[in-house]
Amino acid sequence: MKKIFLYASVLFPVLMSTNFFYKQKDNTLTEEEKKEGWVLLFDGSSMNGWHTYKNREADGWDVKNGELFCKETGVTQRADLVTVNRYENFELKIDWKIAPKKNSGIMYMVMEGSGASYESGPEYQLIDDEGYPGNLQHKQLSGANYDMHAPSAKVVKPAGEYNQTRIVINKGHVEHWLNGAKVVDYQLWTPEWELLKANSKWKDVKTYGMSKIGHIALQDHGGGVWFKNIKLKQLP
């Protein structure tokens, strides 16, 4: 017993000094993140910094318990939520979870001149891969660049559990990360990209993917999606 007590008395201070038991509070930045240039896009208690697409009337979004979420029921008017600011080269980190049988997305480089946010901004797909009704194509699974690039690995967690997404956009080069794995990697505006677009649902949408700067949008596709820890770092 004396040996066990001795080991514990030595080990415990070491673990405490290395933050072994430390879990970062949601919707906050560490000192290291601040030094690296990260900013919070969601403060955990309000929708400051966001507005509905084209400022449309909508009552589908709310904030509760440190989560930004889109309601499934009791909604009379729906609209996507977009950042007030526009971004060009950046890294975005965001945690999300989806309800069973639900579908949503994160759009980037969105301009508000189209009828819908997905008509300009490519979409990082969020969906219940296993429970969504119907047969999903690979380009419709979580982490995909919707209807353009399928995820290279299936690492999404079950509906109702939080996932970690990372999106990197740097001078037209785009990466989608999901739960620590890079699942999509592509270059905008190349002949290969043009061919993919010509064979996708975007073939007749001239505005799709053409802007080099734009808003980040969270999709209201009938609700049932939650977000937290939304952080962005602009790249030079």
What does this structure look like?
- By secondary structure, this protein is of the alpha+beta class.
- The protein has one domain: Exo-inulinase, domain 1 (Jelly Rolls, Sandwich), CATH 2.60.120.
- The chain is built from 3 helices and 13 strands; from the N terminus they run ααβββββββββββαββ.
- The protein has helices at 2-17, 31-36, 191-198, and strands at residues 39-40, 50-52, 61-64, 67-70, 81-83, 90-98, 103-110, 123-127, 163-170, 173-178, 181-187, 215-218, 225-234.
- Strands 1, 3, 4, 6, 9, 10, 11 and 13 form an 8-stranded antiparallel β-sheet that branches.
- A hairpin with a 2-residue loop joins β3 (61-64) and β4.
Roughly how many Å is the radius of gyration?
Answer: 20 Å
Quickly count the domains.
1
Quote the distance from N terminus to C terminus.
57 Å
- CATH superfamily label: Exo-inulinase, domain 1
Query: What is the CATH level 1 assignment?
Result: Mainly Beta
User: Mean pLDDT, nearest integer?
Assistant: 93
Any idea what the CATH architecture is? Sandwich
Note the run of SSEs as H and E: HHEEEEEEEEEEEHEE
Relative strand content = 25-35%
Structural class of the secondary elements? alpha+beta
Measured as a percent range, the helix fraction is 10-25%
**CATH fold annotation:** Jelly Rolls
Largest sheet: 8 strands, antiparallel
Low-confidence stretches: 4-8, 12-18
How many alpha or pi helices? 3
According to DSSP, the number of beta strands is 13
Shape: globular
Task: Offer a few descriptive terms.
single chain; 236 residues; alpha+beta; Jelly Rolls; five-stranded antiparallel sheet; 31% strand
